[in-house]
Specification:
seven-stranded parallel sheet; binds uridine-diphosphate-N-acetylglucosamine; six-stranded parallel sheet
Length: 369
């Protein structure tokens, strides 16, 4: 009986793993393969609005194990995950460990598995920002270097991997599992009363913003510039600002919270998956530094301004929905002033069709057979 362990840890992992588990369940049933799947949550994210809510909304099974590592500096968090995951794998080794994305849980579990002789499958392989000051870039490169199967979301990813010496036979261009989840849940999301609950008027043009990267929120000067730009933009269109815990804590720490007072900036706790999708689909524009939101806005056809110097997701730029904007007040303001509805949002990048999970399932079962 083949056994596979899926790993999730942080918020952007949940919507990537859900379609893979579902597709593997169906594919195994229809081919009479007795596949055993287990789900491990590292506990990197742990508060209800950063974790549990997503399990409910995505219909993810309860994790078989929660490693409860919690927050901490990179070395400590990664080390804790490795120590606890190693015990688990030693106790009951699977045939493969499947990791997604680029968070600390991704590299920590990949490293443990590989050293114990367990195969590693990486979903969302090959994305590169070429910015080694980003912790995620280090996680991506190292995970890809030791993965046995590398599932990519866009053509450029394969070029990156081959240039780093990855054997092309291990690389599979399958599409984007995050978009599988988006397409599956879109109509349920749009049926929710999210906008009314936020006090937005019918047909109101608003800007949805999420900012949480350390490079944008850990430096008081940069964070002040971004908040200034948002407050300025909110004079024309209200700004909806769900606050990541890191951002909320830093606004408080740097004495910037008062800038968000008043009714033009709607600041709130992190939203769940469905409410956030509804908010994103109806936004006039999105201002973000997230990776996944660049992709989701591409499919939703919503203009996205990415407040970063670079992106590991170039297809979102060539597709026409996403633009990079420097993290300063003037750059953000002038980018918003020249923002227009994209014209080609309706048809997505190649293979972003809701079937990436199915393609992965077929290849995984073949590998484990
Ligand atoms: C992590 C990922 C990042 C991803 C982001 C999505 C890494 C290196 N970074 O960054 O790639 O884009 O998740 O959110 O893996 N906190 C809570 N509740 C939680 C989790 C965290 O309040 O459930 C607070 C803690 O104070 C913590 C801070 O948020 O110190 C940051 O969390 P952490 O997991 O360290 O990094 P993220 O910034 O969330």
């Amino acid at each position: 009986m083949p056994k596979i362990t899926h790993v999730v840890g942080a918020r952007p992992n949940f919507m990537k793993v859900a379609p893979v588990i579902e597709a593997l369940t169906h594919a195994a049933e229809s081919t009479d393969i007795n596949l055993q799947q287990t789900l491990v949550h590292t506990g990197q994210h742990y508060t209800p609005e950063m974790s549990n809510l997503f399990f409910d909304e995505l219909g993810l099974p309860e994790p078989d194990t929660n490693l409860d590592v919690g927050s901490g500096p990179h070395g400590q968090q990664t080390g804790r995950i490795m120590e606890r995951f190693e015990q688990l794998i030693l106790h009951d080794p699977p045939d493969a460990v499947l990791v997604v994305g680029d968070v600390n849980s991704t590299i920590a579990c990949a490293l443990v598995a590989k050293k114990l002789g367990v195969k590693v499958f990486h979903v969302e392989a090959g994305l590169r920002s070429r910015d080694l000051t980003m912790p995620e870039e280090i996680n991506r490169m190292l995970t890809d270097a030791i993965s046995d199967l590398l599932f990519t979301t866009e053509a450029e990813a394969e070029v990156n991997l081959v240039a780093e010496g990855v054997d092309p036979s291990r690389i599979h261009f399958v599409g984007n599992v995050m978009i599988d989840s988006l397409l599956k849940h879109k109509s349920a999301a749009l049926n929710r009363p999210t906008l009314e609950q936020l006090g937005l008027h019918h047909d109101e043009e608003y800007i949805l913003t999420t900012i949480h990267r350390p490079s944008n929120v850990d430096d008081p000067t940069v964070l002040t510039e971004i908040i200034h730009a948002l407050v300025e933009a909110a004079q024309t269109r209200r700004v909806v600002l769900p606050l990541h815990p890191r951002t909320a804590a830093n606004l408080e720490k740097f004495g910037l919270s008062h800038m968000l007072e008043g009714e033009r900036v709607i600041d709130l706790e992190p939203l769940g998956y469905l409410d956030f999708m509804n908010c994103m689909a109806n936004a006039w524009a999105v201002v973000t530094d997230s990776g996944g939101i660049q992709e989701e806005t591409t499919i939703l056809g919503v203009p996205c301004l990415t407040v970063r110097e670079n992106t590991e997701r170039p297809v979102t730029i060539s597709h026409g929905t996403n633009r990079l904007v420097k993290p300063d007040r003037l750059s953000i303001e002038s980018a918003l002033a020249s923002t227009a509805r994209p014209t080609n949002g309706a048809c997505g990048p190649e293979l972003w069709d809701g079937k990436a999970g199915q393609r992965i399932a077929k290849i995984v079962l073949n590998e484990l057979a």
